[in-house]
Amino acid sequence: MQLCHGGRRAGMLEPWKGGGPRPMDQGGHTVLAPSAIPLEPDWPAPRALTRQNIAEVIQQFADAAIRAQRAGARVIELHGAHGYLIHQFLSPVSNRRDDDYGGSLANRMRFPLEVFEAVRAVWPDDNPIGMRVSATDWIDGGWTVAETIILARALDAAGCDYIHVSSGGMRADQKIDTGPGYQTGFAAAVKTEVNMAVVAAKSASRCKPKPSCAPGRQTPWRWRGRCFSTRTGRCVQRRSSARTSPIRASTNVATRHAGARRG
After folding, report:
1. For the whole model, what pTM was predicted?
2. Known catalytic residue: 84?
3. How far apart are CA 251 and CA 1, in angstroms?
């Protein structure tokens, strides 16, 4: 189960309706963010979170984890990538606060780590918990790979089971150098500094990955999400008339690692 707060990315129109901010007369609302910096120049500015708001959001993450467990979830992933709220606190592009939650790297990491600690406190010890991160903003002056490694060390020390390394998503003017396995180098750099498992995002999708992408070399895991969901969807469509039992998603890989790590 992935837990996420949209921050300044919340309140968007559906992609098939053109995207962009949702107008107030269509259910839009004032969104919250670390600082009152709009997602794009023509978007409305979000409202900066107060310290009380921050405490409330942290508690909401913990409450969501409790509900996820009651619903049968066995793995929690905190989404701290792609311009969502956790990422917004990490990046100097979106975080211009002058209190304990902004400025220095330690301060910008404070909210993500407090979210992790709050969720870890309510999540069963024998169930894995990880965090997805953007290793770089691909923007000058933004979040960097070096900072990602420091965050990964802190998460590892706090009892994180894995880190899911992606990149980008902060702003539309990002300059991404894509290609087969283009994010595995980021994951490999993180893996050299931590004991927890490292997942390379988008390392093998619609293409043949580099040999260095193979699990067990630079990164022990590769997760293929959308390609499986697409294929599964097609499979369900083909077999829906004959299906007699529910389809269940497997969490065996993450659970196996957690058992090995804690055992």
Report:
1. 0.79
2. yes
3. 10
